[in-house]
Amino acid sequence: MPPLFVDDVVGSFRIQQFESEISRALAENTFLTDDLLRQLMGVGEVDLLVGISSHGDASTTSHTLRAIERSFQQYFTRQRAVIVDVCGGGKDEGGAAAAGLSNVAEKNVRLAESASLRTVHRVTGDFSAPPSPGMALRTILAAADLLRARACAVVSPGTLNLAPDWIANLLRPVYQGKVDFVAPLYTRHKFQGLLARTLLYPMSRAIFGCRIRELYSDEWGFSGRLAAVCLNQDVWHEEPILTRPEAWMAISAISSDFRCCQVFLGQKLQSATGSGTNIVEVFRQTVGNLFWCIESHQSAWLDGERSKPGQTFGPDPELTSEPTDLNRHRIFEMFRSGVTELEPILSSILDLETHAEIKSIVSLEENKFKFASDLWVRTLYDFVASYHHTVINRDHLVQALVPLYRGVTFSFLVEHFDSSPAEMEAVSEGLCLEFERQKPYLKERWKAKVEVKS
Amino acid sequence: MARQGDNLWYKDAVIYQLHVRTFCDSNADGIGDFAGLTQRLDYLQDLGITAIWLLPFYPSPLRDDGYDITDYASVHPSYGSLEDFKTFLTAAHNRGIRIIIEMVLNHTSDQHPWFKEARSSRENPKRDWYVWSQTDTRYEGVRIIFVDTETSNWAWDPISKSYYWHRFFSHQPDLNFDNPAVLEALWEVMKFWLNLGVDGFRFDAIPYLVEREGTPCENLPETHAIIRDLRKRLDLAYPGRMLLAEANNWPVDIRAYFGDGDEFHAAFHFPLMPRMFMSVKLEDRKPIIDILEQTPEIPDNCQWCIFLRNHDELTLEMVTDIERDYMYDEYAMDTTMRINRGIRRRLAPMMDNDRRRIELLNGLLMSMPGTPIVYYGDEIGMGDNIYLGDRNGVRTPMQWNGETNAGFSTADPERLYSPVISNAVYGSQVINVDSQKRSEHSLLRWMKALIQLRNSFQVFGRGSIRFLNPSNHRVLAYVRQFGEETVLVVNNLSSSAQAVELDVRRFKGYIPIEMFGRNLFPRLGDLPYLLTLGPYQFYWFQLRQI
Q1: How far is A315 from chain B (nearest CA, A)?
Q2: Residues 262..301 of A with a Cβ closer than 8 Å to B: which?
Q3: Degrees (nearest 5) of the Cα angle A188, A191, A196?
Q4: Nearest to A73 by CA among A115, A118, A122
């Protein structure tokens, strides 16, 4: 090799740097494995795509696969369809074997006995990154984009009673060209999903102007168009996306003026290992995620108007009123102790007036306690504004909301213990309207210059 | 070429199906005849076909295209004489072409002397040659086949004041095979034609020969006993002759008609045909694979006969309701194209005259397990006339040239038994034998090459089939093997270019030779064998171990 001059060295360094950048960029852009790409090549263009993230759990995956396949057989006999099973780091060889699929080629091509006119493909995907719902969704979106899928759905193996008509209901509005995003509606016990009823739904509805009750669900549908848009967002390494990407997808659809709707699916039975039951973890994954979405989509809502009713397919969601075993006294005690413990943190998050009111209700006797809707809304808006201004560590901020939510839960349980489902609906609607009424307050706090306390 | 002296000749055959009436008119009466057909044998020999299946040419009132026979041992005067038939038969045999004729066992015309006698009085000796009843409730629940025209399987005979049984048109009374005299009479008919030298019979409507209360009156054990009896007589007296079954059933039911190799030599594979069309439209091999996986093994001396189109509607009996709806929607949107449970169209119009798809389907026909049957005119891509009523739209005169009457006849056009196709796309000015003979790249020349290639290898008629399952479902790939012959067939069922990786490790070391151009392809190895195919393209590779 001839001797290098200084310029050559610099040039060589630049070339190396450039190659390194290219390699990094390629690594990011080629998160699909060669094996998955090879399988997708065999599938070709499809009309329908259903994605699942099996997490290596063969026992629940087989039920889910059967439901999807039956859905294709019953409702989409003519359509080109594929199931994308993302294993997320733990490829489910057991599941494949259970289905009698002996080798890669076979398992990709044929499932069990099928009445579909066409081959129903199942491709199994893996990715090198640590397994996460976000990476699973990204893989599914990439498959949808590459296969030019017209209508897609994501379903969860954790849903024990996933039925073929659920999948059809999620796919059909999209396939028929009516919408780009389909959110599910479920039959709920009147005290089930209180977090969605008192926080996630009314807040997202007020801020983004779109009435989607189940932002955080395991099943949803979307168009290939929306898949392509979401896939190209530079968000896939963000923690909120990695843990709970579904609400972000819904909010992306709303923010980009994609057409959204809800479909009623029925009562959902979930496996015990499905969703986490630790309230703090649930908050981090949902409320933290929603706050992040509010932050990342601020340009879409800051100038937004009031929400409008969206299209809903199927019957209205039902509320059932079985007795609840929630320990109200314990919830109240946890509220009171939590707020007391977090007093310094709350003072940095909440507006003075809000903080004062919180302090005043903490001192109330249990039988006189009431967490008013307007205070709750203002509290939440203070939290999300503080999240925006990063007045404290954002994760800590979200966790600090948990005791206050317990207070609202207690108040809600006491106040509506004997309410009928219709009365509950009216209360929920009232809360939603309160969120919408106070939205200017949020905007004001959002835009205000804040001095971050050290 | 079919091997002379080989009793399994039907396995290697390429059969050409035609109606004498449609092929060539020698006496300017507007109707094709045996003399005209004889004149055209050179054309068929040149095409490479090795057998002709003649549709009914017997005397008949022609209310069902000749399947309503009034005399089993003669020739309809419109088609010539028995002497003309003998001349034709000899000429065909001289060219190495075997002749298969129709044997309509199930029923006669109501104008047949047997039926005239039978209905004349209840005491007539021929009375019991047909199936009679005083009520129309016997065999209740038995399905009606011609649902567009018939409302019952019983028809009232005002002469003998009884009902008679008919599975097809009411003017076609069913013969009573519970009467041994009927079988003997029909065996005499068969012997008559066998003695003249015909090589085989296509038995029409076989499942319906016998009726029993409480059954669907189809595929009954008694019917099989009759077939076994006839087969035994045939083998003893006329070895090397062939019986072909028309039984529009599922493969597992048709399988019974092969017996232990002691019933039919061959049978149509009806369910495969619509699925070939379906696969091409769906761009998915699943329908073909599914039906062939449901197709049971047959005895070594038996054979499936496969086809794309024939003189009847493209039958959709052997498909599911979902499949039938799909076929109607894709191939017969205009309801005029539909008849009974099927589609009355020819191959080329169904393929929108897309040469690539026509070639692909013919490629499938010639390479799948079974003996292929080419319907007359499909080798040049003839069109149809769906406005002619019944199934006459696919029975129009053969188009020989661009002259008057397409060279079929010198009669006045008004006198022809059927108008010639005359539209701008499929008319005889455009689609005809002479012009395609002159064009090196015509469909006719291509078909000739295809048939010749098939005739050069016994593997297509006799070989096993093993499907490869590449992940690309738009590609249908299979290996045919017979003795030392191994052929790999790869078909792209889709309208766009496809890449496919084939697992052919078991043929490691073999050299693929593309059979049409004799070009060598890279040797097969351990790795998946990558091929790219253009839209609707197919390859036949001879695999050689050199």
Answers
A1: 29
A2: none
A3: 75
A4: A115
- pLDDT given for residue B289 in this prediction: 96
Rounded to an integer, what is the distance from CA B151 to the centroid of its chain?
Answer: 28
Q: Is the pTM of this model over 0.80?
A: yes
Q: Output the six-digit token pair for A182.
A: 């389909």
Q: Encoding tokens for residue A275? A: 């969703």
**Which among B157, B174, B204, B312 is annotated as catalytic?**
B204
Task: Name the fold adopted by B113-165.
Answer: Oligo-1,6-glucosidase; domain 2 (3.90.400)
3-state per-residue secondary structure call for A191-218:
CCCHHHHHHHHHHHHHHHCECCCCCCCC
User: ipTM of the assembly?
Assistant: 0.75
Contacts of A70 (CB under 8 A, 6+ apart): A164
Six-digit token string for B6: 């080989």
CA distance A191 to A414: 11
Sign of CA dihedral A105, A86, A84, A112: positive
Task: Return the residue matching tokens 């610099």.
Answer: A10
Contact A105 B471 (CB under 8 A): yes
Q: What pLDDT does residue A107 have?
A: 35
Helices vs. strands in chain B: H and E counts, helices first: 17, 22
CB distance B540 to B514 below 8 Å: yes
With contacts defined as CB-CB under 8 Å, which chain B residues touch A44? 472-474, 494, 498
Break chain B into its structural domains and give their ranges: 9-109+177-455, 113-165, 463-544
Are the C-beta atoms of B54 and B102 separated by less than 8 Å? yes
Would you call B275 an interface residue with chain A, using a CB distance cutoff of 8 Å? no
Tokens of B353: 């005259």
Closest Cα partner for B418 from B34, B28, B27, B32? B32
Determine the straight-line distance between the first and last CA of chain A, rounded to whole angstroms.
58
What span, in angstroms and rounded, lies between the C-alpha atoms of A351 and A382? 6
Q: Which domains does chain A have, with CATH numbers?
A: 29-313 (3.90.550.10), 323-447 (no CATH)
Residue type present at position B285: R
Instruction: Determine the CATH number of domain B463-544.
Output: 2.60.40.1180
CATH no. for B9-109+177-455: 3.20.20.80
Contact B285 A41 (CB under 8 A): no
Q: What is the DSSP letter of B405?
A: G
Amino acid at B158: P
Pick from B359, B363, B358: which is nearest to B346 by CA?
Answer: B358
Q: What is the pLDDT along chain A (454 residues), one digit of tens a residue?
A: 444 444 554 555 555 655 555 554 444 556 788 888 889 988 999 999 999 987 666 666 888 999 999 999 999 999 999 999 997 544 444 333 333 333 333 333 333 345 789 999 999 987 666 788 999 999 999 999 999 999 999 999 989 999 999 999 999 999 998 899 999 999 888 788 899 999 999 999 999 998 999 999 999 999 999 999 999 999 999 999 999 999 999 999 999 989 999 999 998 888 765 444 689 999 999 999 999 999 999 998 987 776 777 788 877 766 776 666 778 889 999 999 999 999 999 999 999 999 999 999 999 999 899 999 999 999 999 999 999 999 899 999 999 999 999 999 999 999 988 888 888 889 999 999 999 999 999 999 999 977 655 4
Q: Is B478 helix (H, G, I), strand (E, B) or coil?
A: strand
Q: At what angle do helices A201-208 and A245-255 cross, to 10 degrees?
A: 30
- Whether B204 is catalytic is yes
Q: Considering chain B, what is the average pLDDT of its residues?
A: 96
Which residues of chain B does A75 touch, with a Cβ-Cβ cutoff of 8 Å?
A: none
Q: Rounded to an integer, what distance in angstroms lies between the CA atom of residue B227 and that of residue A204?
A: 77
What strands, in cross-sheet order, belong to the sheet with B162-165? Answer: B132-133, B162-165, B154-157
Give the residue-averaged pLDDT of B36-62. 98
